[in-house]
Amino acid sequence: MKVALGSDHAGFPGKEAAKEVLSRLGIAYEDFGTHSDAESVDYPDYAQAVGEAVVSRRADCGLLFCGTGIGIGIAANKIPGIRAAVVHDVETARLAREHNDANVMALGVRNASPADLPAMIETFLTTTFAAGRHARRIEKIAALEAPK
Ligand code: RB5
Question: What tens digit of pLDDT does each residue of 51-107 get?
């Protein structure tokens, strides 16, 4: 498994913490930046880099971080094939995979507790899609992306 990582300046500490968690779990990752919190940057740039890595299968899934998780999640969801879920805790990380087959987790460094981050990441990476009735709903999401 390979994980694509990205953040803006506000999410930078979360991305750096995620790298430590992934290293501890022995999971490979690619860091698409930003590489410091000293400079204000635009979160869509990092959402695009991570989203494109996931859609092209250069990575299996993505973890994105900004202040709230909202902006970077909205931007990632503009890339066809990306299902980015803004998660707040272990429960929403689990449901994002189980019900929504999310391939990107977006986290808000200003809202989520740093202590919960390892469990949220581990839950997101290990929970499988429940399929069944949820598969029909994911197909309907994909249909919304189809050219009219
Ligand atoms: C940057 O200050 C902040 O707006 C951004 O990190 C994010 O929270 C946007 O949704």
Answer: 999 999 999 999 999 999 999 999 999 999 999 999 999 999 999 999 999 999 999
The C-alpha atoms of residue 41 and residue 60 are separated, in whole angstroms, by 25
Q: Which CATH architecture has domain 2-145?
A: 3-Layer(aba) Sandwich (3.40)
Q: Which residue among 45, 66, 111 has the greatest number of ligand 1 atoms within 8 angstroms of its CB, and so is best to mutate?
A: 66
Ligand 1 centre and the CA of 139: distance in Å?
Answer: 30
Return the domain boundaries, the chain.
Answer: 2-145
For residues 60 and 139, what is the distance between their CA atoms, to the nearest angstrom?
19
Interatomic CA distance for residues 21 and 119, integer angstroms: 9
Q: pTM for this one? A: 0.97
